Amino acid sequence: MRQDLLGNGLIAPDDLALYKTTSSASDAADEISHFYANYRSQRYVDGRLVIRVRKAPTEEQVADLNERFADIVAKGMIEVIDPTPAEIKDGDSLNDSRVAFHFNRRSYGRLRRFVDNLNALVEPQPVVHPPPTFNV
Fold this sequence. Notes:
This protein is α+β, with helices and mostly antiparallel strands. The protein contains five helices and four strands.
């Protein structure tokens, strides 16, 4: 990936955030747990990407996100919103908070960084790992 795709300019450096390689089940579990620390789900509604989160960012945090991630916003601003009429009709994650914006639909590595920033807004939950197996 780094040599062939990034080295030849076929992907952006942030695209490397779209995957993680590990040989450790514990590291894989930690990565998944971190990804869902605050993030819940997403869908497009009326051209906007609506990201559902456990805890919405504050006004100050939204201002910071708008400054740092303006490059992935096609128009308008990143904002905290209430459930949309389409989501209400579908009963879609109505208890979650929402962040929405017109995503440029090309900077997916940067979108992953955006989600990582949303996840950093909450206190990490402890990860419980199963005990190692043993042979009798």
